[in-house]
Amino acid sequence: MNLPFFEIEIVLEIFSILFLPLLSDSYISYASFSNITFFLPAFIYFLANPKEKCFYEPLLWLSSFPFAILCIGFGRDSLLFHEMYMVCFYNAAIAFNLKLPFFSYLLKGLQTGFVPLQLHATITEAFIEITRNSFTFIEAVLISTGLSSVAYATFLNEAGPLVSVLAGVLLISVPSLVLLNSCLLQICSSCKLTKEKSSLLVYAASILVVIFVSRLWVSKRIQQKPEYWVFAQIFLSPYSKKRITILIWWVMCLSSYIGFIICSHNGSFFRDYFGSKGELLNFRRKTYHALIVFMFLPTYCTDPYFVHLAFSGVLFSFLFIEGIRVLRLEPFGEMIHKFLWQYTDNRDHRGPLIISHIYLLIGCAIPVWFSHALRGPVASAELLVGVLCLGCGDSMASIIGKKYGRTRIHRTGKTLEGTAAFSVSVFVVLQLAHRMHICPHVSLRNTLAMSVCTAMLEAVSLENDNLILPMYMWVLYRALENT
């Protein structure tokens, strides 16, 4: 008799998500159909025939994982619970449709019957079309789910000033700039304009979009001029002294990092220390993670509101610069491309976008956005989980794993030594952050559980660490804090 074969890495990946309800009484007590669909990935993997086992993955990450974030992280009393609840079901249908095409009829029926799902489907299709294979299908649908939640909060008038600014960046500015500039470049090409004239036209059009579309939209949402509102938040607020200090700290960190990058390119010490170009490249990439740690770790709990605003502004800047790079606009496009290309990995080569640095920013910002949506700008250790995962854990796992790793994990190629470094670094930094009064207290038990479980998921999952790990550690923190 042939016993079924199960990969231990996949079992651990499924378990890392599906054990989350065991930490939360609120989810278990809420008996509904979602509890059944939540555990479907396990049933499919353990009971389906070998050819269908891989079907567990999209269902796990597109439906079960968002269900965990919604029900355990935010709870049934959250403002957008019912809308996002339907989106989770819709994502499950998307996952089934990958293997069972007749589910497309169900998708169309759901879109017809529920306006929020029609909006979610439109956002998903537009995002996939705009990014053109730069993201995997699972990543694209997950990001679109987040964009849909921002859209619902905005259109249902549940969004405060900060979410309005974020919505202005993600839902108004970026799509408008993409559509307008695509049309302009086609016109320039047909008119045979020079590259310099085409670039100048695109810059002018972008400025007009920001002034007359994005600015007016945000102004209407917050009931005042955006530039005055931002100025007042920094210089006229009761927290102005604190916020100016934060800005000075960020400028100092950026200046030091730029100096370090120049030295690492010109000096021979780093080239001699690292045995190969691959190790040196990995070290340079992880120094960007270290910059994030030094910049944001001391400031998260100091002023969560201002950090939320800063992340929204920096995200728009990153996306705008990426647009200049993709379109190779004169005179900066080619310079930006050459600088960023030397820090890319295989994930950046799938499509036209270089996403690593944007992913890192989003990963560090997600806990701030989630926490603010849940309970406002409250200082809490949950704000730090993004920078802990990516700035500390992922960096140490990569550096230690590549330098000293010997025992490899079959599915992902990562090492047990790197996984141990991830767990230890997250545990130590979070405890040090509390003792240095950077964040409120987190018990040793919860710190250990978060560091070990997140390190385990990082080791066995094939999904993008920068997107998955901050959300996972955030919902894990919420579950542990509520027990």
Summarize the structure in words.
- The protein is mainly α.
- It has 3 domains: 148 residues, no CATH class; 78 residues, no CATH class; 242 residues, no CATH class.
- Helix content is 75%, strand content 0%.
- Helix 16 packs across helix 17.
- It is globular and about 60 Å long.
- The model has no long low-confidence stretch (mean pLDDT 83).
- Keywords: Endoplasmic reticulum, Kinase, Membrane, Transferase, Transmembrane, Transmembrane helix.
Please describe the topology of this protein.
Layout: H1 8-18, H2 25-28, H3 33-38, H4 40-47, H5 56-74, H6 81-99, H7 103-113, H8 115-131, H9 137-155, H10 161-190, H11 195-222, H12 226-235, H13 240-266, H14 269-273, H15 277-296, H16 304-327, H17 333-341, H18 356-375, H19 385-404, H20 416-435, H21 444-460, H22 465-481
Supply database-style keywords:
483 residues, mainly alpha, 3 domains, 75% helix, transmembrane, dolichol kinase, membrane, endoplasmic reticulum
Number of domains: 3
Largest sheet: none
Tell me, rounded to a whole number, the average pLDDT. 83
Strand content: under 5%
Number of strands: 0
**Which structural category fits the helices and strands?**
mainly alpha
Tally of DSSP helical segments = 22
Point out poorly predicted stretches. Answer: none
Distance between the termini: 44 Å
Approximate shape: globular
Order of helices and strands: HHHHHHHHHHHHHHHHHHHHHH
What does the radius of gyration come to?
A: 23 Å
Percent in helix: over 70%
Main location: endoplasmic reticulum
Enzyme class: transferase
GO cellular component, one term: endoplasmic reticulum membrane
Membrane topology: Multi-pass membrane protein
